[in-house]
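User: Hi! I'm working on a homework problem where we have to compare a predicted structure to a textbook description. Could you give me the structure for the chain below?
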Amino acid sequence: MNDRERILGRVRRALADVPHDDPPYEQAVSRDYLTEHGERGVEETVELLAENLADYRAIVHRCTAADLPATIAGMLTARGSKTVLAPPGLDPAWLAAAGAEQVADRAESTPHELDRVDSVVTACAVAVAETGTLVLDGGPDQGRRRVTLVPDHHICVVRVPDQVVSSVPQALTRLTPTRPLTWISGPSATSDIELDRVEGVHGPRTLEVVLVSD
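Assistant: Happy to help. Predicted structure tokens:
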């Protein structure tokens, strides 16, 4: 008897007393739980997102759609970025005022090449206010996962209020589970046994979020 047979045998014994007409899992588990904590209006939800993003040490900016190119250009200049990566589906107008050299998102780019890129600018799929989380799903304006994990500086644009939800359950209804989902809560960080925080270990050291409204 191999390990697979042992495990399946234990499963069968555990299920031996379950009646054949037992309700299926989808019906047995109640799904009537709350999908958000409290009731908030649109402005309150956006404010909560900005507050939680900042609490995770992300740098939050706000602007209108018309001011977005100038806002991104100012962020790149302040950072001293000479190169910026843009996913193929990103609106070209967003980087129209950027003075940095634009780098294409290429499948053959190596981690060393991506590491030499100063900044990356992407959109997002959805933003969760209660957790201060940005979710990327690899869409055309977000690019491959690695382009947001290797460069040290990530600028993420969130359309307000269309892409902002209150809670994770609400976010899940907008996402496709088969897509490559990346959940981002602040810049990459970890702590050692003495709780000394180190940023930039598993991803960008600096995360800047632009909340852009019409």
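For your comparison, note the following. Helices lie at 3-14, 25-28, 42-55, 68-79, 111-115, 168-172. Residues 40-213 form a domain with the Rossmann fold fold (CATH 3.40.50.10420). Good luck with the assignment!
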